[in-house]
Design brief:
- The structure holds two protein chains of two kinds.
- By secondary structure, chain A is α+β, with helices and mostly antiparallel strands.
- Chain A has helices spanning about 5-15, 20-25, 50-60, 115-120, 140-145, 155, 160, 190-195, 230-240, 255-265, 280-300, 310-325, 345-360, 390-405, 420-425, 430-445, 470-475; strands spanning about 20, 40-45, 65-70, 85-90, 95-100, 105-110, 125, 165-170, 175-180, 205-210, 210-215, 215-225, 245-250, 270-280, 305, 335, 340, 365-370, 375-380, 460, 480.
- In chain A, strands 12, 13, 14, 15, 16, 17, 18 and 19 form an eight-stranded antiparallel beta sheet that branches.
- The radius of gyration of chain A is 23 Å and the shape is globular.
- By secondary structure, chain B is an alpha+beta fold.
- In chain B, a hairpin with a 4-residue loop joins strand 13 (about 245-250) and strand 14.
- The longest helix of chain B is centred in the last third of the chain and has 17 residues, at about 355-370.
- Chain B starts with a helix and ends in a 15-residue tail after the last helix.
- Classes of the chains: A alpha+beta, B alpha+beta.
- The interface between A and B is large, with 91 and 85 residues.
Amino acid sequence: MEARILTELRRVVGNEGLITQPQQLRTYECDGLTNFRVMPAAVVLPTSSEQVQAIVGLCARERIPFVARGSGTGLSGGALPIENGIVISLARMTRILEVDYLNARVVVEPGVINSSVTQEVAGAGFFYAPDPSSQQVCSIGGNVAENSGGAHCLKYGFTTTHVLGMEVVLPDGSLIHLGGKTLDHPGYDLPGVFVGSEGTLGIATKIILRIVKRPETIKTLLAAFDTTRQAGAAVSGIIAAGILPAAIEMMDNLAIQAAEASVHANYPNCGGLLLVELDGVTAEVESLMSQVREVCTANGAWEIRVAQTEAERIVIWKGRKAAFAAMGRISPNYIVQDGVIPRTALPKVLDEIEKMSGAVGLRVANVFHAGDGNLHPLVLYDRRIPGQEQLAEKLSGDILRLCIQAGGSITGEHGVGEEKKGFMAEMFSEPDLDTMQRVRCAFDPELLSNPTKVFPRPRLCAEKTGPYEPHPLEIAGVAEYF
Amino acid sequence: MPQRVSELAEELRSVVGEDHIRSATPQEAIDGVDPETVIEPGTSAEIGHVLEIADGAGIGVIPRGGGTKLGWGNPPRCADLILSTARLNRVLEHAWADMTVTVEAGCTVAVLQRTLAQHGQRLAIDPLWPERATIGGILAANDSGSLRLRFGSLRDLVIGITLALADGTLARSGGKVVKNVAGYDLPKLATGSLGTLGVITEAVFRLHPLPRQSRVVSFEFSDSAALGTLLLKVLDSQLVCSGLQYRASSGENAHLDVGFEGTAEGIAAQVEKLVRMTRLEPAADAGPQVWHIREALAFWLGGDSALVAKFSALPGDLGKVLERLVSLEQTHDLKWQMIAEGVGIGLLRLEATSEKLADIVLSLRTHLAGLGGSLAVLGCPAEKKSAINVWGSPADSIELMRRIKRQLDPHGILNPGRFVGGI
């Protein structure tokens, strides 16, 4: 990177806010998806909206692509740097700016950690609902970029349900406000488009969140079945009975083994484990929980445990929340996928996965947000064995194709990022993708904001002002004009 | 201008057949602007073709479902062709075991709900005029209702959409599953866009079970401030309400309606808690029709001296909105009615002399803007719309909104001029 640009950046963020040393840059060369690595030209760490604006303005003038980064826990490579571009880390913008209990709103900077929001408001009986398993580490800004979910989104919705407005720096360096503290601002639902846009439309520098009152009662149940098919049938039975739990999670035997080896949650050793959580008014929860027990028993549950205390509840969840990380106990390497299928397709899809896994000789553990069809197959392999990594990647991709064929999605919460760009054209048609890219052109006509992510073929926007200058991606042969 | 559509008549007829294209009647004017032709395509593909033809000729297109909200927004700059979705009225797939439904945009809300009820499910919204309003229309107008408190608004329930763009492209986004973050969330962009970005032809929704039981209790109070406090108390409690509605008007007692759904035990326990919290006896159990009272308020009958508006405020500021209305009673001889929901959205009916209405709207809007809220006029005489300013001053995101509009409808043929900032 040119010395004069580094000097300008240093002027904005100070010495402590600029990283250029290769050993230090290494930290930023990937996010939670470690098999894609790119060294950025520099990393900047602003501490205010004004600084973010100045940095993005500089990038706009100098045609430097940039990637915003929160805690770097993303699982699809969304924060993977661009060659010769910079990483703008929001990790130093960690202030909770406002808490309004009367109206149940909180305003935060993007670097605030997800679980700190709940921590901040728990004393007053509130919580922040979207609870990805990485919530102790991941940032709100990152959650906004990915529209993060979590186990409780079945009932409570996703990040987009809980973001009312944002202050955003657009890729041209201008600062605008999307939405606000009140609902239904006249105009387009810009917060709705921005959330989940994976950093391609700009950078959120302030985020207005909705917090929710803690329910009167939370009851968690664990049920053991011989097979995932039976567990799946129990889920269908619960839904058919008109019950909407706060969360329904399923784990297969491999996933249980890993979790046990890691955190010793003392799960029953079964073929399919269901975790069902109900919350709400005590009288209602009691009555519904006994119905859930009946449905589980009717579908072959041979052990049912209901947490009697908060401590027991935490233990029941421990294994599930540790499941991914726990895979390391039973396999040297693994690829975690994030497909979604209609819930009714579960038995068929799980059967298919078993067949495919047998055919290539790799084990697949399954953790499943059973309530909303979000499947997390973990393809287990050993990188040291030649050819296994490629096999694992192929199997992982084939599982995603299965999800598309079943009428689902290639990603329920991890995002498309770098990893699944190639599958976008299998899930959507050209006109569909073009339409999304047209919207992108409205936000980022110069294609500087995380430009290589999400779309398989970035489209340059013909309709922009100023004299023609070839875009770095055009020069690299990666992009083409509409 | 009238000649342009007739020049296209032959081309349009070849798309939909001559039975489905006719001249517009004077009653079909939109805010005093007379369209020439009404066309009723039978499929999404036909809608695409019609738009392509219209776009090529640069004629103004007004998408129309049930026609219940054609008066919302600014008068159109031009309105040559009414594109009716009436024939796209089918429920395409009710995947009840997955709790999703795919439905065409011209299906009425009531028909959809009746279909879903066959499997004990519903789309958890209660919009205005469900027997006439269509799915495409309520999405485009972002009209949800009181259930929003518990189930979210339309933007939270729509999971997939097919949009026919001005150039004839049929663009799908979202999907058929509730959890889906692949690509941009264009269903949200389309919701509330008042047909200015594309014609919604199909939508996919997540569903909820029909409640086993439901009950509404109403409280009446002569002191509206006290009821406002009660509303906040209910919101802050651990009660789970399916609806929380505040009704007030000049010179009358105010009412708070609290709705519950669930099991019999759950409802009984909640009502008991509520009565203990308020230390009041509710008036006799109101029936579910209480949630439809706002339909009468929202229906602007025309005339010079009345106006209907939608406002948004923080729940904690509803009291301040009321205070301003009461003071305007004195200063401007205002008669008003308000029906507000616990989330802070409400409808207002304002009656005053024609000269005072603009002032009243300005005063309310300024007050609301200061509270971070907004006010949009839904019904008033067409010739008053520019003086009264339907949408209020655009926010600092208006240029971005204009760019989005230019990307998706570069010739500006869809509902030209009706939206925020004259989009």
